[in-house]
Amino acid sequence: MTENGIQRTENREQMAGFIIHLLSSVFCLLAIAGCAGYSSASLYPKEVSTVYVEMFDNQSFKRGIEYELTDALAKRIESQTPYKIVSNRDRADTVISGHIAEVKESVLTTEREIGRALEKNVELRAVVSWKNLRTGEMLMDNKTVSASASYSEWQGQSFTYASTLAANSLAVRIVELMESKW
């Protein structure tokens, strides 16, 4: 190989190294710019430390679901938020309350020959409010939340089983609404 050919090969290698270095620098800058909006701050309002959960009212004809929802909500708040549940309203920073507005049961699938329900669905709809007792501010004002769960009596499941699942899903959605707005 001639000296001129060796020179061209070295120039190509230098150019390839420069391009690789330039591209890796651009990717690093893009990655850093993409993380600029990241924050490790809490998703929940900082001025709140304790929550009193009032027993939910039930405006449907299906009794007992209000106990399931209230219990599930208190457990979710305690386990997934920085807040402490208190049993005395006078010692709480905030109070969360609401009512079950509707409990619907519907058939999902039926047996072809006799029309008996094989799988059913339970849907719960609740209206929830969250008030700061120190300032009087409504942190959540009459928000409608719904959740559903299905069950099959053929698998040994009942309405109570599905309503408990739906109440737990509803509690998860209510806790999600407690997060601060971005």
Q: Strands, helices and their partners?
A:
Blueprint (H helix, E strand, L loop, with lengths): L2 H32 L15 E4 L3 E2 L6 H16 L3 E2 L8 E17 L6 E16 L5 E14 L7 H19 L5
Parallel strand pairs: 1-3, 1-4, 2-4
Antiparallel strand pairs: 4-5, 5-6
Beta-strand content estimate: 25-35%
- Low-confidence runs (pLDDT<50, min 5 residues)? none
* CATH architecture heading of the largest domain: 2-Layer Sandwich
The top level CATH class name of the largest domain: Alpha Beta
Number of helical segments?
3
Q: Helicity level, as a percent range?
A: 25-40%
Which structural class do the helices and strands define?
Answer: alpha/beta
Largest sheet: 6 strands, mixed
CATH superfamily membership of the largest domain: Lipoprotein like domain
Shape estimate: flat
Number of domains: 2
What would you say this structure looks like, in words?
The chain is an alpha/beta fold and 182 residues long. It has two domains: 38 residues; 128 residues, Double Stranded RNA Binding Domain. Strands 1, 2, 3, 4, 5 and 6 form a six-stranded mixed sheet that branches.
Quick synopsis:
Helices cover 37% and strands 30% of the residues.
Key features of this structure:
Double Stranded RNA Binding Domain; 2 domains; alpha/beta; six-stranded mixed β-sheet
